[in-house]
Design goal:
Length: 284
């Protein structure tokens, strides 16, 4: 059962992972921000996927209160400038940057020798530790290597989130033991996602985040349409249903978890670091 959209206005939600800088959403940004406000979505984390596009992402975030940014290179982006620890740390000096990533491993789409993915993942973890920021981790069909590299590189020192989680209960438990949160997207609302729904029902509430990963993976009843952060309450509503708790409990817990993990977003926190002085990589 899904709550009527109007009910969402009585709770506050945060979309912990979206891509508002992607063309399908950036062109509709004023409309999306208005819809977010109407549906009680107070904030959103706009996640970086490559460095050439990062200057536009951070400029968008700086222009809108309630939007935050990460900096990193997605594991699917093979033909893109490789990040260095130094570059990521420099970008992370910007007060609107709250995390390093998204980073990680994806063995689903790309074949062959993927050592470059593993080395890139290590670079991000080292940068996160140096910057003192949490990690946003993408993992798909790479459970063992993801957990192994996280352990080897000391990712538990800064923690982070396994975003758009679709893996097993065992992986969720292992990640939580390493100081990570588990974030659920619209996939958790899909009828055939029974194993994932079981994970969402069982992990500690204090380790749970919600997201859209928009413009992808719109939740039921909007599946197949372009997704945006205003739809994240549907994810919360499904998790509340699975856990047999009020929607407000999921909203409150996921919001508190977001501010705990991404400490720069917490109310009253003042970050003294200013905008990054790193050069715009589009012109290098």
């Amino acid at each position: 059962m899904f709550y009527p959209f109007i009910a969402f206005r009585f709770s506050m939600f945060i979309d912990s992972h979206c891509h508002l800088d992607f063309p399908k959403l950036r062109s509709r940004l004023p409309e999306i921000l208005d819809n977010m406000q109407q549906q009680g979505v107070a904030q959103a984390l706009c996640v970086s996927v490559n460095l050439p596009d990062w200057p536009e992402l951070i400029a968008m975030v700086r222009a809108h209160e309630g939007l935050w940014a990460s900096v990193g290179v997605h594991p699917d982006y093979e033909d893109t400038p490789e990040p260095t620890v130094e570059a990521l740390v420099e970008f992370a000096r910007d007060s609107r940057v709250v995390a390093i990533g998204e980073t990680g491993l994806d063995y689903f789409r790309i074949e062959g020798d993927l050592e470059w993915q593993r080395e890139r993942f290590r670079v991000h973890i080292r940068a996160a530790r140096q910057a003192g920021l949490p990690l946003i981790v993408h993992t798909r069909q790479a459970c063992d290597d993801t957990l192994r590299i996280m352990a080897e590189e000391g990712a538990d020192e800064v923690g982070g989130v396994l975003h758009c989680f679709t893996e097993s209960q065992a992986m969720a438990d292992a990640a939580i033991a390493m100081n990570f949160y588990i974030s659920f997207s619209g996939i958790v609302t899909f009828k055939n996602a029974r194993e994932l729904q079981a994970v969402a029902a069982s992990i500690p509430l204090e380790r749970l985040l919600i997201e859209t990963d928009s413009p992808y993976l719109a939740p039921v009843p909007h599946r197949g349409k372009v997704n945006d952060p205003s739809l994240v309450p549907h994810v919360a509503a499904k998790i509340a249903e699975l856990r047999g708790i009020p929607l407000e409990a999921v909203a409150e817990a996921s919001t508190a978890n977001f501010h705990r993990l991404f400490a720069r977003t917490a109310p009253g926190v003042k970050v003294t670091t200013g905008p990054s002085s790193a050069k715009d990589l589009r012109h290098e």
